[in-house]
């Protein structure tokens, strides 16, 4: 099964598993960070100008 994904030895499998665990921990932290009490309300995301500014802020 792993060979079909291009993983051919145990080191690659180990590194992939560790990477997946790190990514899962990062996503768990991001979820906790995103849904804390100071998070913007739903109405903020429904405001088109606010949503556009939110997404364009990453380009600066």
Overview features:
mainly alpha; 3 helices; elongated; 65% helix; single chain; 60 residues
Q: What is this structure's SSE topology?
A:
Blueprint: H1 10-34, H2 42-46, H3 48-56
**Which whole number gives the mean pLDDT?**
83
Largest sheet features = none
- The topology string of helices and strands comes to HHH
Q: What is the helix tally?
A: 3
| Shape estimate | elongated
The count of strands amounts to 0
Radius of gyration: 19 Å
Bin the strand percentage.
Answer: under 5%
**In angstroms, what separates the terminal alpha carbons?**
43 Å
Low-confidence stretches: none
Helix content: 55-70%
Structural class: mainly alpha
Domains, number: 1
Keywords: Membrane, Transmembrane, Transmembrane helix
GO biological process, one term: photosynthesis
Transmembrane segments: 12-35
InterPro entries: PSI_PsaA/B (IPR001280), PSI_PsaA/B_sf (IPR036408)
Give your account of this protein's structure:
One of its GO terms (cellular component) is chloroplast thylakoid membrane. The chain crosses the membrane at residues 12-35. Keywords: Membrane, Transmembrane, Transmembrane helix. The chain has 60 residues and is mainly α. It has one domain (3-59). The chain has helices spanning 10-34, 42-46, 48-56. The chain is elongated and about 50 Å long. The model has no long low-confidence stretch (mean pLDDT 83).
